[in-house]
Fold this sequence. Notes:
Blueprint: E1 11-14, E2 29-34, E3 51-56, E4 70-76, H1 87-94, E5 95-109, H2 117-120, H3 122-127, H4 148-154, E6 157-172, H5 173-180, H6 184-187, H7 191-206, E7 212-226, H8 229-232
Parallel strand pairs: 1-4, 4-5
Antiparallel strand pairs: 1-2, 2-3, 5-7, 6-7
Amino acid sequence: MQRRGSTPGNERAEGAPSCPPRWHPPQLPFVKQHKPIGANGRRGSTHGKPSRTVIGGAFETWQPPVSDQFDLVFAATAWHWIDPELRYQRAWELLRPGGHLAFWTATHVIPEGGDPFFVEIQDVYEEIGEGIPAGTPLLRPGGIPDDRDEIERSGLFEDVVIRHFDWELSYSAEEYLRLLGTFSGHIAMQPWQRDRLYAEIRRRLAQRSNGRLRRHWGAVLHVARRADPTASS
């Protein structure tokens, strides 16, 4: 996000939302990133490193200085935590005219011929009371729902662009368990649930010749320009 009155592109900020009631991490900060400052003292030089300002506060309630407006509001795998009644209005208020909102989400997708481990391990999730609801479809690469309709319904953003990405990573048992330890659903589990699930993941992967699994990721990037009500009047 860029501060009003400065050269476009000088500043951006990333904000952390409040989180759902099952999971309460410490309050997370905003990060305002500036273009590098070179030896000549001018922003935008390739000779300097980006500077950052960390500001503690939740996106929904943070109040910037009156003079602050920004080029970009950006959220990575966090936009869905923010109240849909607030998020687009809040982003619109922080952006300068012509600024952009960009957010992306990443999740597990299962391609044709993908690793069967994730379907096979569902019996353990069911056993510990964390199973996928019946009838939930498997997400395929390129098939993650996007938020184009929601963005356009807000009436606050236009020129919406959607891009899908997918990739595959390989994990050992311990690498995969460290990944699961970053997911809010697994953080919220009772210790006995995690112990049972993690022990079974270790056991099953130990039976594979290479001891690894393949996890396919899918992501959807949304970019939209702040609408200017005066331009259409």
